[in-house]
Write the structure tokens for this entry.
Amino acid sequence: MGAAVEVSAGVVSPSSHEVQPLIQTPFAERNGDVSPDGRWLVYESDESGQFEIYVRPFPDVMGGRWQVSTGGGTRPLWARNGQELFYLAPTGALMRVGVERGPTWTATAPAQLAGGRYFAAAGNPGRTYDVSPDGRRFLMIKVGGESDQTAPPSIVVVQNWVEELKRLVPAK
């Protein structure tokens, strides 16, 4: 998995401990993630009027810029093999972009990987999902809806649970 980078904060030089801005624009750039091979930086920016996913070369971020998403996107994440990029569409769907290895940025068009509405906390721009190391499974929080629930949410509180356990599992 790529190293997390806060794009608007900058990069710290290990030798001088000096913070250098990575990208400075009047727009919000956030959720930066460096590709596993260290060659690319993915992030989201609202420069178009809505958040979209962009990629730049890393560490020379001024060497190019490519828009990855179409129709909006947030919370980008690299697959550990670096050949896939994921993000959430404004609808909450999980999107996938195939990334080709090569000297320049080359990627497939975005495709919906998983439909449905997945949790993306309002006011919290951080990523709310992850991909397994083999890239075959995702951990996501599905937003509940009336059709998703058969019973109202409830909580069960058991007082004196040791006594309850003794009743349910008597000692021999």
Summary: Residues 4-145 form a domain with the Neuraminidase fold (CATH 2.120.10.30). The two ends are 51 Å apart (CA to CA). The chain has one domain: 4-145.
